[in-house]
């Protein structure tokens, strides 16, 4: 995952490039090691992209530790290094760490304000999480 966040994008594309997000989603849906050609055949149906571009981006995802690459029957296959839930946890944590570095004194207040506007029921869940973190910190 890079350091850029695109707030106007949807889903994975908020934290990955558009094609990276498409390819990672395709690998997750495939649910088995997949060749670049297999990934390309699935993606090209909705997104006009060259096979070589797919190979390049898959290898970038390997470099970012989001995919692994290994040979099966002499062909390179790609597998997700993280499940969707693990990726969501990883990306969320990186996002929060980045925001805290940017404006630590405003983060909590803004987060509570936005959460209260969008999903007030989650405020109670947030309060429980804060209390659990305090107990863990204090060793109780």
Question: How would you describe what is shown here?
Answer:
With 140 residues, the chain is mainly α. 61% of the residues lie in helices and 9% in strands. The protein has helices at residues 18-30, 36-43, 51-63, 84-102, 104-118, 121-138, and strands at residues 67-72, 75-80. The chain has a two-stranded antiparallel sheet. A hairpin with a 2-residue loop joins strand 1 and strand 2. Helix 1 packs across helix 2 and helix 1 crosses helix 3 (51-63). The radius of gyration is 19 Å and the shape is elongated.
Short description:
With 140 residues, the chain is mainly alpha-helical. Helix content is 61%, strand content 9%. It has helices spanning 18-30, 36-43, 51-63, 84-102, 104-118, 121-138; strands at 67-72, 75-80.
Helix-residue proportion: 55-70%
The separation of the N and C termini measures: 36 Å
Q: Roughly what is the average pLDDT, rounded to an integer?
A: 88
Helices, by number, come to 6
Gross geometry: elongated
Runs with pLDDT <50, length 5+?
Answer: none
Give me the Rg, rounded. Answer: 19 Å
Give, in spatial order, the strands making up the sheet with the most strands.
1-2
Specify the structural class.
Answer: mainly alpha
N-to-C series of helices and strands: HHHEEHHH
Tell me about the biggest sheet?
Answer: 2 strands, antiparallel
Count of β-strands: 2
Topology:
Elements: H1 18-30, H2 36-43, H3 51-63, E1 67-72, E2 75-80, H4 84-102, H5 104-118, H6 121-138
Antiparallel strand pairs: 1-2
Helix pairs in contact: 1-2, 1-3, 2-3
